[in-house]
Amino acid sequence: MKKEKIQKLIEKLKDNNFDEIIITDPFAIKYLTSIYIEPGERFYALRINSKGEINVFANKLFPPIEEDLNPVVYTDTDKPIESLKNLIKEAKILGIDKNMPARFLLNLMEGDKTYKLGSFMIDDLRAVKDLKEIEFMEEASRLNDEAMGKMEEKLSEDLSELEMCDFLDRVYKDLGAEDKSFETIVGYGEGSWDPHHMTNDNKKEEGQSIVIDMGCVKNGYCSDMTRTFFYKSVSSEQKKIYNTVLKANLKGISMVKPNVKISDIDKAVRKVIEDAGYGQYFTHRTGHFIGMECHESGDISSTNDNFTKVGNIFSIEPGIYKPGVCGVRIEDLVLVTEDGVKVLNNYPKELKVIE
């Protein structure tokens, strides 16, 4: 059990006038307890109240839960929601997380209780990484840098997008990564124009752009990085697009420091691309928060008027996707430090043509 994190959550419950919170998101439970379980269709939850009472609800089929978490263990023929109702019967304002399945929530909701979405309290805690989390994420990004180097070398071979992804899986395994943090995107030519391209059997052709968006998991924390290359030749407009995206990426990074309005970062990045005449081809937000999950709560967009905090880690990933010309995205992870910013990726970003 991570007592310091749980105590911070209890303080948030008090500050926001919640009597209890019921958490069913496996990653949020892992954040607070170090326990990770994939529950499938079975009920799995962490209950915490403002008095400091804690219970974990888990099926008997799951691994044993440590005793200081006061486990409520049930079988497939038991009714865990009824047990939970008995524990929370005195609560008036109950926080529910955004992941609780309706089949459990609807059975829970009765009486004169007030039910409120409570995930924001955990999301706020998870958005500020401690020193150990930062260390884990720096290591995951170091591995990702190394893996990108091997991917760049492999691009000189006549391999399909899927073959490149298969190669990366082997690289991650050899480097000691635990898994991919998301499904790798390798997009050649037309595939590079689609920000969330579904990798396929296409092979690259001269003059095409190549987008590689990849990340791995190490020590339970994710990395994420995108680099763009060109195959054998690059046109003048492709160079202009690439250099515009690079300028936008660097502008975004330069904005990062404590207490900056997040929407201002997005605005500054977007202005670089708009001023170059490619605003219509930048079709997504500037970035996302990341940690135990590749996409965590919080984004770098025009609608997020929260302010950056020391310990935030998020991506800066502008892109231009012009059909018939090229797709370019350059993505780095950045850490907000007391002095400003630390970029977690060190892989080069200058324009490269694969021969």
Classify the beta-strand content into a percent band: 15-25%
Query: How would you write the strand order of the largest sheet?
Result: 4-3-2-1-5-6
Q: What is the number of E strands? A: 20
Mean pLDDT rating? 96
* Count of helical regions: 9
Instruction: Look at the helices and sheets and give the structural class.
Output: alpha+beta
Secondary-structure element series? HEHEEEHEHEHHHEEEEEEHHEEEEEEEE
GO molecular function: proline dipeptidase activity
Enzyme class: hydrolase
Pfam families: Creatinase_N, Peptidase_M24
EC number: 3.4.13.9
Characterization of the model:
- The protein has 355 residues and is of the alpha+beta class.
- Helices cover 33% and strands 23% of the residues.
- The chain is built from nine helices and 20 strands.
- A hairpin with a 2-residue loop joins strand 10 and strand 11.
- Helix 6 crosses helix 7 and helix 8 runs antiparallel to helix 9.
- The radius of gyration is 23 Å and the shape is elongated.
- The termini are far apart.
- The mean pLDDT is 96.
- Keywords: Dipeptidase, Hydrolase, Protease.
- Pfam families: Creatinase_N, Peptidase_M24.
- InterPro entries: Creatin/AminoP/Spt16_N (IPR029149), Creatinase/aminopeptidase-like (IPR036005), Creatinase_N (IPR000587), Pept_M24 (IPR000994), Peptidase_M24B (IPR050659).
How would you concisely characterize the structure shown here?
By secondary structure, this protein is an alpha+beta fold. The protein has helices spanning 3-15, 26-33, 80-87, 102-108, 119-126, 131-154, 161-175, 236-255, 262-275, and strands at residues 20-23, 45-49, 54-59, 71-74, 93-96, 114-117, 179-180, 185-188, 209-214, 216-218, 221-222, 225-231, 287-289, 296-300, 313-316, 319-322, 326-329, 332-336, 341-343, 353-354.
